[in-house]
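Quick one, C-alpha cells below. Sequence please?
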C-alpha cells in the first residue's frame, strides 16, 4: 500500500481481503503459534478477511507429521473459542508441517517443495509471508537460508515475500544493528515487518484517533498545560514458565524497549501530515530521537529496577522471582523498572515522562495518564478544595478499555466545596463491534502489505539508544535490584522518584 492513507481513520468497517498466500511460521511448535497466531488466522478466515487460498506451513524442530500439526492447531483454535467449521476446513486443507533445523539447508529445500506444491494445489500463487517466531538467535540464520534458496524473492510482478519478525529485535543497540545488517543482506526494508503486538491493540491505536481526530485535546497536549505524563504497564502475573527467556531479557528489554516506548512515541509525536505509514513512523522516530539519553550517573537517580519477592496477588500466595522454576537463585534480572525521562523538544521541554512496568504488581493494567497543571489561581479557601486533585486525562489501554477525564466539581449542598470527579468513556459500552485481537490485526496488515503498525529499523534503533545507558549501568552494578513484595506497586524507591518532584504514581 506504500503511502496510501491508512484505513485507521477512513473507510472504517470496510472488509479488506488479503490475497492468496502461504503463511510460513518458523517456530510452529512453540507457544505463540498455538496461543496467538493460529487463533488469529482462524478468526480472520471466519471473518472473510483471508483469501480461501491461504495455506499455513509450520516449520519447527519437533518431529511432527502434517496430521499431527493439524490436530495441534485444531486444539489451539478450540482453546481460543468457538470454532467456525467452514473457516477451519478452509485452513485445514492448506496446513502443512516441515520439521528440521533452522540452520539446515535441507529444511529449506523441503520447504520449497511444499510451497511449490501448495501453489499448485491450493493456489497460493507464489505469495509468501514468513513469520519468525523462533528463538531470536536464529532470526538471521533463517533469513540467510531463505535467501540462499531464493525463497525471499517475490515470485514475480505484483507478488510478495514478506518477513514478520517477533520481538526481541536484538538484545542491545549493537546486536540490533547487527541483526538489521544481516536481514538487509537478504531483504529490502519494505519486506521486513517488525512486530510489537502493542501496536495491534485498538486502544493503542486510539491514541492517534483521540489526538488527531479531535480539536479539543491537541491544544492542551503540550508543556503549557501538561504537568507530567505517566505510562504504566502493570502485570499481575509472574514470569510463569518463561524463565529461560526472561532471565536473559528482564523487564527493560521485555517491555520498556518496545511496548512502553511505542506508547510514549504515540503520545509524544507531532501530528503527521497524513496517516500514511511513512507519515506516522517519521513522527514517532522524531519523538524518540528527542528523548534525552541518560548519562551513567543519571541512571542511578532517574531509574529504579526491582525484583519481586514472595507475596500475595489476588488472594493467592505466590513465590518470589528467585524461587520461580529455572531462575538462577542469585539472579539480578529485573522484573520491575521505573524511570523519569525528558523529551527535549518545543512541545515537551520540562515535562517529565514517568514510565513503569512490572510483573507481580497488584493488577494487570496498562494506561497512560496526562496530569494537567494546576489553575494559575485557585479562588477558593484551601479548606474548600481539599479533595480536588489535578485534572487528568487517562487512557486505559487494558483491561476495561476506555478514557477517563478527571476534573473538579462542586459537591452538592450549602457549603462551597470542590471535589475531583470522573467522566468516563468505555469502549465496551460505546461500541457493539468487538475489537480484533492484536495479532489478528497485525497479521492481516502484514498480509495486506500495510506496515504502519510495524516498527521501522530507525525506530528500533532509537528505542535501543534510550535503554542502552540503563543496560550498561546495570551490567556494572554489583547490587541486586531493589526487592518488592509480590502484590505491591514496586520498590519504595519508585515512589521516592516521584515524591522528589512532588508527585505520586496513579493507582490504576
Ligand atoms: C510480551 C512480553 O511482549 O508482552 C510478556 O514478552 C508480557 O512478558 C506481554 O507478559 C504482555 O502483553 P499483554 O498483551 O498481555 O499486555
Amino acid at each position: 500500500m506504500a503511502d496510501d492513507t491508512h484505513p485507521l481513520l477512513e473507510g472504517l468497517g470496510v472488509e479488506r481481503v488479503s490475497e492468496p498466500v502461504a503463511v510460513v511460521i518458523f517456530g510452529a511448535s512453540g507457544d505463540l503459534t498455538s496461543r496467538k497466531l493460529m487463533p488469529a488466522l482462524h478468526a480472520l478466515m471466519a471473518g472473510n478477511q483471508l483469501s480461501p487460498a491461504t495455506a499455513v506451513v509450520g516449520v519447527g524442530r519437533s518431529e511432527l507429521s502434517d496430521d499431527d500439526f493439524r490436530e495441534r492447531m485444531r486444539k489451539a483454535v478450540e482453546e481460543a473459542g468457538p470454532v467456525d467449521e467452514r473457516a477451519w476446513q478452509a485452513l485445514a486443507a492448506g496446513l502443512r508441517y516441515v520439521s528440521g533445523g533452522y540452520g539446515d539447508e535441507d529444511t529449506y529445500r523441503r520447504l520449497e517443495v511444499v510451497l511449490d506444491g501448495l501453489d499448485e494445489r491450493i493456489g497460493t500463487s507464489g505469495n509468501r509471508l514468513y513469520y519468525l517466531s523462533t528463538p531470536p538467535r536464529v532470526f538471521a540464520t533463517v533469513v540467510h537460508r531463505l535467501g540462499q534458496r531464493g525463497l525471499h524473492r517475490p515470485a514475480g510482478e505484483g507478488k510478495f515475500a514478506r518477513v514478520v519478525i517477533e520481538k526481541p529485535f536484538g538484545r542491545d543497540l549493537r546486536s540490533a544493528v547487527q541483526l538489521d545488517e544481516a536481514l538487509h543482506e537478504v531483504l529490502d526494508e519494505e519486506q521486513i515487518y517488525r512486530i510489537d503486538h502493542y501496536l495491534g491493540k485498538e486502544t493503542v491505536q486510539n491514541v492517534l484517533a483521540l489526538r488527531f481526530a479531535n480539536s479539543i485535546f491537541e491544544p492542551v497536549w503540550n508543556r503549557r498545560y501538561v504537568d507530567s505524563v505517566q505510562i504504566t504497564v502493570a502485570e499481575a502475573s509472574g514470569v510463569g514458565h518463561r524463565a529461560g527467556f526472561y532471565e536473559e531479557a528482564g523487564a527493560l528489554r521485555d517491555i520498556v524497549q518496545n511496548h512502553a516506548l511505542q506508547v510514549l512515541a504515540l503520545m509524544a509525536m507531532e501530528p503527521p501530515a497524513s496517516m500514511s505509514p511513512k507519515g506516522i513512523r517519521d513522527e514517532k522516530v522524531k519523538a524518540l530521537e528527542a528523548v534525552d539519553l541518560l548519562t551513567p550517573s543519571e541512571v542511578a537517580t532517574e531509574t529504579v529496577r526491582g525484583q519481586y519477592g514472595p507475596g500475595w496477588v489476588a488472594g493467592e500466595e505466590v513465590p518470589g522471582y528467585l524461587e520461580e522454576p529455572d531462575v538462577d537463585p542469585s539472579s539480578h534480572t529485573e522484573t520491575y523498572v521505573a524511570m523519569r525521562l525528558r523529551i527535549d523538544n518545543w512541545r515537551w521541554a520540562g515535562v517529565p515522562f514517568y514510565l513503569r512496568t512490572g510483573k507481580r504488581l497488584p493488577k494487570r493494567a496498562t494506561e497512560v495518564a496526562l496530569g494537567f497543571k494546576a489553575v494559575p489561581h485557585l479562588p477558593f479557601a484551601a479548606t474548600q478544595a481539599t479533595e480536588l486533585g489535578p485534572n487528568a486525562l487517562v487512557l486505559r489501554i487494558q483491561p476495561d478499555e476506555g478514557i477517563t477525564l478527571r476534573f473538579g466539581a462542586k459537591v452538592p449542598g450549602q457549603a462551597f466545596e470542590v471535589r475531583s470527579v470522573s467522566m468516563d468513556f468505555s469502549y465496551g459500552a460505546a461500541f457493539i463491534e468487538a475489537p480484533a485481537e492484536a495479532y489478528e490485526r497485525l497479521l492481516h496488515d502484514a498480509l495486506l502489505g500495510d506496515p504502519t503498525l510495524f516498527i521501522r529499523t530507525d525506530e528500533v534503533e532509537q528505542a535501543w539508544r534510550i535503554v542502552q545507558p540503563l543496560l550498561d549501568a546495570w551490567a556494572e552494578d554489583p547490587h541486586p535490584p531493589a526487592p518488592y513484595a509480590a502484590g505491591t506497586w514496586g520498590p519504595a524507591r519508585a515512589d521516592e522518584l516521584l515524591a522528589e518532584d512532588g508527585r505520586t504514581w496513579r493507582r490504576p
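The pocket of 6-O-phosphono-beta-D-glucopyranose is lined by residues 235, 254, 366 (CB under 6 Å). The domain at 7-194 is CATH 3.40.50.720 (Rossmann fold).
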